[in-house]
């Protein structure tokens, strides 16, 4: 006989529903919790967009690099020696000049007037000299005539005295006549000797007067030569080859008609063959730079060897000025203010583990680099300790082995991920 099953079936269905609902209530939180525990998928990065490098072992050059300019080491300063005004200007800033070129001409009216006055005085002095010479020669001739006449009178008196002496010896003439003749001869002899002395003294006096006048003329001629030299100095000429980098005092520019005073700077000429490079090295790297270190300067038209000659003791705007003198000839086109790129060799390490310098890597620091998997399909962030740094390479102290490949480019966009996929 059949038993009724309606209530039993309904009860079983109710139980199944309760079990399903209970399982669903338990499963949903478990699934949600499980999903929350899952790590996000690693982001994909194009391998072609990153800069990979391989860790190597071997010698490494530790150097520093900085941008800079070529600077003139020697200048020729041209200044005014006298008052004047600018009459002519032949150059401007940037003009190339050669030894002997006239840069400008100054004018001084008083100096020109002084020269004309001296020329007139010299002409007058020479005329005075000629007139004095004629007068003195005339007076000398007169004195010579008087001396000659005195000599003639003396000789005649001596002859008379000699005759009277002979007559007296023969008792043909009295003694008084002889004494008178001898006395007259002696007197005329003294007059002749006095006249000769006067002639000699006059000659000396004439020479002294002419010499004095000649000295006056020479003094005027010397003054004229100095004035002409001073006037010539108003023509400003350069005695070196170079480039005019400044016309007039600092901060001003000379114009035609402008007055200049003694000592005023008229022009500044640079000597392009006397150049040095001044590099700006970051102050964090400049601590290792010292005088005498070897350097190379890239002028974009050739690389020139050199050496460090000066390191600025103080930093300005985060950089330190370092001067490099050249050990080789400058290439064509080298000129003041030319932009250059310089590299200074600090030291050379014979054996070290190193890699290309990453974008964010500084010497002596710890950074995270993505090390590429052997299959090249992914990369994992690895902590790397860095050592000595060069311009293009840096020492690896810890965290990488020789042969490891790492990404050196900027990976800051993936700072929140420790792993990336490469494709």
Topology:
Blueprint: H1 6-37, E1 44-45, E2 52-54, E3 56-72, E4 75-79, E5 84-89, E6 96-97, E7 102-107, H2 109-169, H3 175-232, E8 235-237, E9 242-247, E10 259-260, E11 265-270, E12 275-282, E13 294-298, E14 303-311, E15 319-326, E16 339-356, E17 366-372, E18 378-389, E19 393-398, E20 405-407, E21 419-422
Parallel strand pairs: 1-21
Antiparallel strand pairs: 2-20, 3-12, 3-16, 4-11, 5-7, 5-10, 6-9, 7-8, 9-11, 12-15, 13-14, 13-16, 14-15, 16-19, 17-18, 18-19, 18-21
Give a description of the structure.
The protein has 423 residues and is an alpha+beta fold. It folds into four domains: 6-35; 47-71 and 273-422, Beta Barrel (Elongation Factor Tu (Ef-tu), domain 3), CATH 2.40.30.170; 75-108 and 234-270, OB fold (Dihydrolipoamide Acetyltransferase, E2P) (Beta Barrel); 110-232. The protein is built from three helices and 21 strands. The chain has helices at 6-37, 109-169, 175-232; strands at 44-45, 52-54, 56-72, 75-79, 84-89, 96-97, 102-107, 235-237, 242-247, 259-260, 265-270, 275-282, 294-298, 303-311, 319-326, 339-356, 366-372, 378-389, 393-398, 405-407, 419-422. Strand 13 and strand 14 form a beta hairpin. Helix 2 (109-169) runs antiparallel to helix 3.
